[in-house]
Design goal:
about 200 residues; four-stranded parallel sheet; Rossmann fold; Alpha/beta hydrolase; about 10% strand; AB_hydrolase_fold; alpha/beta
Length: about 200
């Protein structure tokens, strides 16, 4: 997230970018582990914005389902499996999957009982960026429709979201994509994404 973090800092945002043990705990435990230390680094009277990637979006949903943040302004999610990921459905039983993706990764299936599908609609201001390019054609072969190599475009959508945009970028590298960064900043500032026909060429 460092490239995105630097762009946010240059725009005037104070940033907190800390790691969390994503493979060690289930989503219910990971959410406060990841979010509360970050919140403690923010001034008590400051507006709060989240920019998440992949599982991070589910952790924010989990946290906000149990906690109220009066200072929360907007959230941008990059490639979130908001309705689960078909790759988890197909590969959860493969040896090594749990070691690579952890307990939380196993919870990201598309079944109705999975956390992404039981957390309910967004009750906060959120814009979602989905990618539709892939460098992992094996995983993309398991996913119906357009996808970013890990998550289908349709699975990123969330009931109650304020805006959604689909960009030609991959799941793994979207955080460094220039257009993704510009759209993220635009949403944080104004609460909407810029229509693609108004976007400059991304070289």
């Amino acid at each position: 997230m460092s490239t995105l973090e630097q762009a946010l800092q240059q725009t005037g945002y104070d940033t907190v970018n800390i790691g969390y043990p994503s493979r060690d705990y289930p989503i219910e435990i990971l959410a406060p582990l990841a979010i509360e230390p970050a919140l403690k680094k923010c001034p008590s009277n400051s507006d709060i914005y989240f920019v998440t990637h992949s599982l991070g979006g589910i952790l924010v949903r989990q946290y906000l389902s149990a906690n109220t943040l009066p200072q929360l302004k907007r959230v941008v999610m990059l490639g979130p499996p908001n309705q689960g990921s078909e790759t988890v459905d197909k590969l959860a039983g493969v040896p090594g999957f749990k070691w690579l993706n952890g307990c939380a990764g196993l919870q990201l299936g598309t079944d109705a009982a999975s956390p992404p599908n039981t957390l309910g609609p967004a009750n906060f201001d959120v814009g979602i960026i989905a990618g539709d390019k892939t460098i992992n054609f094996i995983l993309s072969g398991l996913i119906p429709g357009a996808d970013d190599g890990k998550v289908s475009v349709s699975s990123t959508k969330l009931q109650g979201m304020n805006d959604h945009i689909q960009l030609p970028t991959t799941h793994t590298f979207m955080m460094s994509n220039k257009t993704v960064i510009k759209q993220t900043i635009n949403y944080l500032q104004y609460g909407y994404f810029t229509p693609l026909n108004e976007q400059p060429a991304n070289h």
